[in-house]
Amino acid sequence: MPIPEAEKIWMDGELIDWAEAKIHVLTHTLHYGSGVFEGIRAYETPKGTAVFRLSDHIRRLYQSAFIYRKEIPFTQEQLVEATKQVVRANGLASCYIRPIVFRGYGEMGLNPLSAPVNVAIAAWPWGTYLGDEGIKHGVRAKISSFRRNDVNHIPPAAKACGQYLNSILAKIEVTEAGYDEAILLNNNGFVADGSGENVFIVRKGALYTPPTSSGALEGITRDSIIRIAEDMEIPFRERDLVRTDLYLADEAFFTGTAAEVVPIREVDDRVLGEPGPVTRRLQEAFFRIVHGEDPRYEHWLEHV
Q1: Which of 76, 161, 234, 253 has an alpha carbon 20 to 30 Å from 23's alpha carbon atom?
Q2: pLDDT tens readout for residues 125-169
Q3: Within a 13 Å sphere around the CA of 139, how many CA atoms are in the beta-carbon half?
């Protein structure tokens, strides 16, 4: 989907015009995928625009950089403030935010440690990733023939640019076949993630999601839904899931910053149906929280 242009992008400590946010063609990350990034959302609330769990996202950005031996030349506090600055500078009431830490121009080859490290933060208006109809009625998912990266091949605990080639292959495969989203299994045949989301199922009133050891990303929205479910006293546990657990689920849904909370109405042409009561409760609670309508979770909102 096309990116609607905003006015300013933060790059290496300063705001610059959107059209001037350029890099050299020999930038290391362009050739080897050696960047790490985050997806973050800001929402309009009664108290003004607020970024959802901003500090947690920036903390995870640093964790990803640490895995890939990348020293970010700014503190976490500086990037939190820079993110707010970008949203303010662009006058955005609600938006998607993309911080990226990349190895820049000056070094070529597979040992990247002497390459410079650059940081950019962009923000723009972006609606529902899987569509408004998906939010309301659920999406059609298909299990991809591509397997999730193994934890000892490319660590899925990091959000690194190059590893998303795995998700791109899965996404292309299933959308070309007429489905909305892919689900990837790991090399042991257990459910890992969607192409860009975590996966949950509901069975007999209880909520389940794969553990991070299966290859699932430690998602911020995933963690939020787990905490909300626990506060609602919905039984929850992490456990390995196989594809038939998806087929036989009473309900299923995706979570992610871009996707938010999206019901799954079909998996591999097995119809689960319209979103169920547990999915709806969690989805409605999530949207109340991000829009500042539940004071119990006010600490998750960082106002710009």
Answers
A1: 76
A2: 998 888 889 999 999 999 999 999 998 889 999 999 999 999 999
A3: 28
